[in-house]
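Researcher: We're teaching a course module on how sequence relates to structure. For the next exercise, students receive a sequence and then see the predicted structure as tokens, so they can try to spot secondary structure elements on their own. Here is the exercise chain.
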Amino acid sequence: MIAGIILAAGASSRMGTPKALLDYRGETFVGRLVRVLGGSSQPVIVVLGYHADVIRESVPANARIVVNPDPSRGQLSSLQTGLAALPAEADGFAFIPVDSPAVEAETVAKLIQAFGRRDTSTLFVIPRQFGRRGHPVVAARSIAAEFLALRPTAEAREVVHAHVNRTEYVDVDDSGIFADVDDPESYQRLKEGVV
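Model: And here is the predicted structure for the students to work with:
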């Protein structure tokens, strides 16, 4: 079983409104990601922080909500909050920031299928298009301890980069793996289909 973790605790200060609630193709960012991840992973854990009370109302009922007690520590702290909530039976986890709403369900399914077939020495399965890596990242349960041990100022990519030789890349036809909506300009590009 692979759990899904959506990182939605940020302040959205550059956007000026909670990114989790922005619309993409008729769904909120958080609602779409719960659906997309939920097609292949269970449970889907949504990590909230800033604006938790407002966003909570829009999180689909089939998702589990956990709250980062100090989201000012950054995105790594949200991943650590989500990992602390992983069910014991989870073999791995897929994580994605809520500002990457455009990934397709078929891509997630392909990644999780590849994870299920992987060599046991493989720790990460990551989507790639035109040689560029994207989201979500699927990781083995055994690597969670390394994320949890990172110092507060670190970034999750430090763990990912440390294990490049134990990473499988899956080529996909999905530019949504690159979407990263941080401000009104990038949101406008997303709506125009320019990722």
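Model: If you want an answer key for the exercise: The first strand starts at residue 2 and ends at 8. The chain has one domain: 2-180.
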